[in-house]
Specification:
Elements (H helix, E strand, L loop, with lengths): L4 E3 L3 E7 L2 H9 L6 E8 L5 E6 L10 E3 L3 E5 L6
Length: 80
């Protein structure tokens, strides 16, 4: 997790998640998702906003920035 960081790339989908595990799990189940931004605080529904992203911080380093409202998670990919 990259605390207080945001990746500004096209969003595949925005969902509401119970926690970071829930958010990352939704990404793993979406073939178009490569990383996520997760809000730092819950919304009025008691859940976190979770942005499923079309790219990752390694491919789009120039779009990776500090944020007071988001944490960024990159999906770990195993080696063959």
């Amino acid at each position: 997790m990259d605390e207080l960081q945001y990746l500004d790339v096209p969003i595949v989908e925005t969902i509401r998640a119970f926690d970071d595990f829930d958010c990352n799990f939704k990404c793993l189940n979406n073939p178009l998702c490569f990383s996520v931004n997760l809000a730092t605080s819950k919304d009025l529904s008691g859940k976190f906003r979770c942005q499923l992203l079309s790219s990752d911080k390694y491919t789009n380093a120039k779009d990776f920035m500090k944020s007071k409202s988001w944490h960024h998670f990159s999906i770990m990919v195993g080696q063959c």
